[in-house]
Amino acid sequence: MHTTSHEQDTLLARRQRVLSPSYRLFYDEPMHAVRSEGVWVYDADGRRYLDAYNNVPVVGHCHPYVVEQVAKQAAVLNTHTRYLTDKPVELAERLLGTMPPELGSVIFMNSGSEANDLAVRISRLVTGNSGIIVTDCAYHGTTDLLSGLSPVTGLPTGPGVFTVSLPPKMADAGEFRILVRGALDKMREAGIRPAALLVDTIFGSDGVVSGPVCFLKGAVDDVRREGGLFIADEVQPGFGRTGAGMWGFARHGVVPDIVTMGKPMGNGYPVASAVLRRELADIFGRHQRYFNTFGGSTVGCAAALAVLDVIENEDLVVHAAETGAYLKDGLQNLCKRHDVFTDLRGTGLFLGVQTPSGDVAARIVNALRRAGVLIGAAGRGNAALKIRPPLSVSRSDVDYLIGTIDDVLNKEIER
Amino acid sequence: MHTTSHEQDTLLARRQRVLSPSYRLFYDEPMHAVRSEGVWVYDADGRRYLDAYNNVPVVGHCHPYVVEQVAKQAAVLNTHTRYLTDKPVELAERLLGTMPPELGSVIFMNSGSEANDLAVRISRLVTGNSGIIVTDCAYHGTTDLLSGLSPVTGLPTGPGVFTVSLPPKMADAGEFRILVRGALDKMREAGIRPAALLVDTIFGSDGVVSGPVCFLKGAVDDVRREGGLFIADEVQPGFGRTGAGMWGFARHGVVPDIVTMGKPMGNGYPVASAVLRRELADIFGRHQRYFNTFGGSTVGCAAALAVLDVIENEDLVVHAAETGAYLKDGLQNLCKRHDVFTDLRGTGLFLGVQTPSGDVAARIVNALRRAGVLIGAAGRGNAALKIRPPLSVSRSDVDYLIGTIDDVLNKEIER
């Protein structure tokens, strides 16, 4: 049994004294992280955990090349976009090089929240409409505006926000279109026109709903027909995670009007972006300036450039596809042998396993933590397991992950 | 005359092609920054500029100790607050140690915008009221909510937002109270109750209005009497800049309900915070969770701890007071000899010089850039010069700054 050390109790008490009670820790027994490397996180007792949850360290925790590039740039110049500097221009060019040509204009921020907040604001400005469609388990960020667009938090939806209830398993690509059409109908009845459909291109907070490929296309067409935009929230699926390309929208055969990205962009360095169709950026730029002090800073851009280098040099998109398929096979086998695994979803290294309830999922997540594996829960009632290791995860790491899950289900969950 | 190099033209053209037109560059001739150190920034031609504008590199550009601490932590562990880690606890304790004991609860973010956005949201949640008072040249950040609380941007104020028009020179401490009382009266007529008074503790975007000490106190009392909170925006004045203490509110003999901070906190690393009275944090925490992926990350906290170390070890608050007084004396002498300097305001190393118009201020700012000094303009019509060097600026740097301003006024502005 795990012994909570005196030091950990003391740290926990200090934390509870000075941090706001709005903070929450993972796990029944909080994990005191002191070091990490690649796919491994080490606790204060020197015990190691396979990180199968965090998508921020996308190329692996503390990747030496990213650390080196950040340190090098931080020692030379760390300034903002009101001076002319090379890095934000290089990064914007590199990002645009990964996207369809319609997406031609880049804005930098510090977080996916800042990116989504601005994307929604721009969609309302350029369309002149106010309606936004999100899913009813969506999470799009922490700002005041986005708290009204993130029903999974339990906060009330904001004015003009309409939700669609995503089925965890879609029968065909037409199902989502029908749901969105329903939201558009309700909007029309309320005298509101759509500014945007804002969705993850893999529905992470909805329980990793990947659905049939191209299921977004019809819905996007309908929203556009009524004057709205499609904002692709790539904060979770972006940077190769789906294995189908750099961006989740590639799976859907549709080019977004605005793409937002954040979490993995700097492998932990706070950097984010919104990429827009050029004509939208032109309208926005005619009406408003936008300056973000740290957004597009030379060091943040160096971090993001280093991440792009590693993804390319280590061929991580292909690796995510291949290792993701191997992981999915392994999970599929577990589904056959364990009744608590009722469904398997996702693509690449972004996978979700349905369990009967949030209680079962929490028991599995906590048992895995004790057994040395970090995963999380998401979706309706937090009943789905969210499995999302760094893209650099190896086949032997996957074997360890599958073996540990199997063990835990046998010994602790299904006894 | 400055010769714009071919490389710079090319970089500028590339930038305009890929970055959104909402971006703006400083100066008629953009400055291509490639390196910086202490108070100096170097352009692509190897020319150096005294940075008398940027408050982000508060302990000096590329301070070796901050760079080292960031690099060290980035190589060991960069993770979030849902695991137990030392750094955010240490940082929260250190921050609270600089504040009155009523302020007892810390939340971390990435930017002053995220901090102000949450502060306003919390003020509305805990008071149950919606009214917010800001100045009519206020700037509080980039989010959708804050764009409605930042009239200096030219964007319309948001619902429930009331503005007061700050006189650049306040006759006595009672003047601001009368203005705020007027806003509270208008609010009452509109059937709205106050959630918060949100102001800089030195009014930066209003043209560096420092006013008589304690001028906020009466206004804060009145707002509190009607159920509202006082949010001190310390994003610009915080971290010793006023020379009167770590925080600008110290000059006003009042303890805020929420303190927000950002820009200088990590000397360029994106890190920010909201510090709350414990009872407010308790109410917020009972109603809502708040998770910010990068906020309170181990590396961001290491950067902020390093900045606090340097401020302490180099005695920068006292230095800001002393060197600030020396700089103010120098500017006072210039005011006597140059008619275009019509007023001098500010305290510590946060100073504002009034000029007759935005056109004159822009001419001075551009002439100084050509002469090797970086400053900015702010306030109504951008007619005030904003002078805000890193706190590590020396007396000989100040002599260079004053000498260069004198020269530029003699040779280029008042010929």
Topology:
2 copies of one chain form a homodimer.
Chain A lengths: L5 H13 L14 E5 L2 E4 L4 E4 L12 H13 L9 H11 L6 E7 L2 H16 L3 E5 L8 H4 L13 E4 L9 H16 L4 E7 L16 H9 L3 E5 L24 E4 L10 E6 H10 L10 H16 L2 H22 L5 E5 L2 E5 L3 H14 L1 E2 L1 E3 L5 E4 L7 H19 L2
Parallel strand pairs in A: 3-13, 5-6, 5-7, 7-8, 8-9
Antiparallel strand pairs in A: 1-2, 2-3, 4-10, 9-10, 11-12, 12-15, 14-15
- The count of β-strands of chain A is 15
Spatial strand sequence of the major β-sheet of chain A: 4-10-9-8-7-5-6
The succession of helices and strands of chain A, N to C, reads HEEEHHEHEHEHEHEEEHHHEEHEEEH
Our count of helices of chain A gives 12
Beta strand % of chain A = 15-25%
- How does the helix and strand content of chain A classify structurally? alpha/beta
